[in-house]
Structure formats: C-alpha cells, structure tokens
Amino acid sequence: MTIDPETLGYYEQGGEVTRLREGVGRLEFWRTQDVLRRVLPPAPARVLDVGGGTGVHAEWLAADGYDVELIDPVPLHVARAERLPGVTARLGDARALPAPDGGADAVVLLGPLYHLTERYDRVRALAEARRAVRPGGVVVAAFISRFSGLHDGFARGFALRPEHLAAEYHAADTGLMVSPREGGFRGFFHDPDEIIGEFADAGLAEPVRYGLEGAFWLYGDIDVWLDDEGRRELLLDAARRLESVPSLLGVSGHLLAVARKG
C-alpha cells in the first residue's frame, strides 16, 4: 500500500472531518446520499466503502442497516472511522483491495480516483472494485469535474491570484490539479466523457453518470438555501431533475458514475 507524501499530508490536516458537514460541502453530501439510496441494493447488503475517509458516508449507511467496511490509506481516517457504530475500518489501497472476490454487494469509491493521476491506476482501482463485488452487484465511483477548479476559483476569488488561475487553467486543460498553496489539493479532475472509457477498460458496463451539485454550488447565497429546510428540499429536487442532463454534467463540482457487474 502506498500513498504519496503530499496526499497524506493534505488529509492529515483533518479537513475531511468537517468538509461535507458544513458550508457548500453539505450539498455534495446530501446529493451523494440521495443517489446512493436510489442505486444501492437494499440493506442489509454488504458495502465496501473504499477511500471512505473518516466515515462520513459509512456512518449513515450503517445507520440505514448496511453491513459497512471502510478501507482507507490514511491512518487518521481509519482511527476515526473505526469508532463509528456498525462500521469496521482498516488500512488499504484501492488498487489492491484487501477483500475476497465477489464478497461485496456494492463497492463505492467516493474519493480514491481523485488522487490517482495515472489512468492506469484509476482503471486498476475500478477493476479491483469489479473483482470485489458479486455478479449483479453495484460499483459506484466519484469524480471531480475537469472544470471545477476554474469555477471554484472565480466563485471564491482565488482566480484573482495569478498562480491560482494558472493552476485552474492547467487542470481544465489536462485534468492535473496542483494547488500552489502549501498543503493544498493535488489530484486528477475528469472530463465527464473520460469516465465511460475508464469504466470500460476496467470491465464494467457503460455507467450512468450523475452530476451532484449542478450549477447550484456556485451560487453566492447557497448557504441560505441549505440552511432553510424548505428551500433545501426545493434545491435538492431541482438538482435531482437535472442530474443526468449531458450538457450540464461538467458544471457540477462532483460526479458519480454507477455500473452493475455483469
């Protein structure tokens, strides 16, 4: 199992503890939860949460009655996740899962593909998910949109700094994001069409793709909508209606892709 020092350092800052629990990150969380509840087999199915971080999704999956095992390469994440009720957690690499063939009903990768900058490694991780899931089981993977850095840079003002704007353009052109900030994010951002080819090369059928946030995450008053329950439900319903419109997929900050093992 290997994880590059920059990625390990980024996650050892502990940002994943709160990222999906506050601010605009809540939209990604609620939309991920919404899609998973529609595509996963019913509980008590066995779910491998690969690269599951501190267990932000494993926690509610276990509460929903799923048999959840979280696998993550960051010791800090595993230490936090293993304290969650109903969740088992251990160290592991998405490219070489410590899991038997066909032992899971579903495998979810809600982070590993962000940090595998080589296509070979991403396909390998998807192929490992396919190996670990039973025939007819579900593989779900999360991706960051190729254009999210540029959108985020203008929405949050980072684009006013030349070094940030250069990094955002580089990511939009190549998929490779290297934050100029010390300890910042480093990884790979996908064009939505790239996802189909990577699934195919891993032996998985053409996936259904879901744009999680649509354009809503870029709204300046997004917290107002997320803080108010009534407004939030309107927003989530609108995002659900637009989630698979091909022309809008790249506008989302994050995407999910779902396929069944043949």
TrEMBL record:
Q: Which GO terms describe its biological process?
A: methylation
Molecular-function annotations in GO: 2-polyprenyl-6-hydroxyphenol methylase activity; 3-demethylubiquinol 3-O-methyltransferase activity
- UniProt keyword Iron, yes or no: no
Q: Which domain of life is it from?
A: Bacteria
Q: What EC number(s) is this enzyme filed under?
A: 2.1.1.222, 2.1.1.64
Where's the Methyltransferase domain? 47-137
Which key words are in the record?
A: Methyltransferase, S-adenosyl-L-methionine, Transferase
EC top class, in one word? transferase
Quote the protein name from its UniProt record: Class I SAM-dependent methyltransferase
